[in-house]
Amino acid sequence: MSKLFSLPSIWLACFIGAFAPAIFAGLDSLAQKEDIIAGVNTRLAEVGYIGLGFGVQGVIILGVLAVSSEYYTESSESGGGRQIETSLSVVPSRLYFLLAKAGAVTLISVLLCVIAIVIIMLSTQLILGEYAPAFEWFRLIGAVCYWVLTALIAFGLTLITRNSMIPLAVLMINSSIVSFSILLAKVTTLAVYLPDRAGIDMFMSMSDRFHTPFTGGLVMSTWVVILMIVAAIVFHRRDVAS
Question: Whole-prediction pTM value?
């Protein structure tokens, strides 16, 4: 974990993960307050949770950097090698190496989500006052699970591709600008079994909700397990310490 925090970009990921959801939630709370004053129907039950849905960018960056940092080519003054060669020399067990990395990503993701939840609760209470929704603990746990599983998806994809830009671009766009699974859902109902679409049902009460929180988490977890197994196999066969 200390190795991860030595990366300057990790601090940007932590900042985004901790505070971006609160910004989304704050803006949404202001919009809901205006609707309350105007007597318009509101979405108070979703205030805060929407911020948690959009705020996973921080843990996506975290999952990507945890792997991609190992493949940066060092300067000629440092020997011109890659960190992965040193890491595999110091930690011969590839399984232990991956578990340690994934464990660090998991712990940091949980911490960031908890911080984001606390800030969201405070900000919505400050803005909405007596109209602030009572957050449900099982939905908050679902949000934490969603963050962790999303971070591990970013981790696994980066391990397979050995490229930070591809998983970073795909996952960031999918979680913020346009959701590919939502677009695909207009074509086929099988899209509801894609990891992000299933995972969001763990804490969002959308009108088009398909899964229960449990089944949504089960579907997303299955994707993560399969992805991590594939990533571990690829990592074991491909990367050799010099």
Answer: 0.89
Virtual torsion, Cα 73, 79, 82, 85, nearest 10 deg: 170
pLDDT in tens, 90-115: 777 888 889 989 999 999 999 999 99
- How far is Cα 174 from Cα 192, in angstroms, rounded to an integer? 14
Among 163, 71, 143, 150, residue whose Cα is nearest residue 106: 150
- At 151, give phi and psi (nearest 5°): -60, -40
- What are the backbone angles phi and psi of residue 95, rounded to the nearest 5°? -65, -45
CA distances from 218 to 90, 98, 114, 194, 222 (A): 35, 22, 21, 12, 6
Q: Are 43 and 131 in contact (CB under 8 A)?
A: no
Report residue 187 as tokens. Answer: 């074509």
